[in-house]
Amino acid sequence: MLSRVAESIYWMCRYIERAENVARILKVNWHLTLDASSEPQWHPLISIMADEIYFQEHYPEVTQANVMRFLAFDREYPNSIYNCLRQARENARSIREAIPTDVWEQVNVFFHEVERATQSNAVLEAPHEFLGMVVKGSSEFIGRSYTTMMHDEGWHFARIARMLERADKTSRILDVKYFYLLPKAEDVGTSLDNIQWQALLRSASALQAYRQIHGPIAPANVVELLLLGYGFPRSVKFCVDRLQHSIAFVSGSPPGLYTNEAERHCDQLRSQLACARVDSIIEAGLHEFVDSLQVQLNQVGVCVQSQFFDFRDVSLPEKGSPATPQVQLQ
Amino acid sequence: MILDVYETEGFFDEMLDDGGAPRSGMTNIVEKLVSISQEEMTKQQASAERTLREMGITFTLKTEDGNTERIFPFDLIPRIISAKEWAWIDRGLKQRIFALNAFLQDIYNEQRILKDKVIPAELVHSSPGFRRECIGLNPPQGIWAHVTGTDLVRDADGQIYVLEDNVRCPSGVSYVLENRDIMKRTLPHFFDVGKVCPVEEYPSKLLEMLLHLVPEGVERPTVAVLTPGIFNSAYYEHSFLAHQMGVELVEGRDLVVMDGYVKTRTTCGFKRVDVIYRRIDDDFIDPLCFRPDSVLGVPGLMEVYQQGRVALANAPGTGVADDKVIYAYVPDFIRYYLGEEPIIPNVPTYLCENPKDLGYVCENLEHLVVKPANESGGAGILVGPHVSRGERDAYREQIKRNPRNFIAQPTLSLSRVPTLCEAGFEGRHVDLRPYALYGKEQYILPGALTRVALTKGSLIVNSSQGGGSKDTWVLAE
Question: Model ipTM?
Answer without folding.
Answer: 0.73
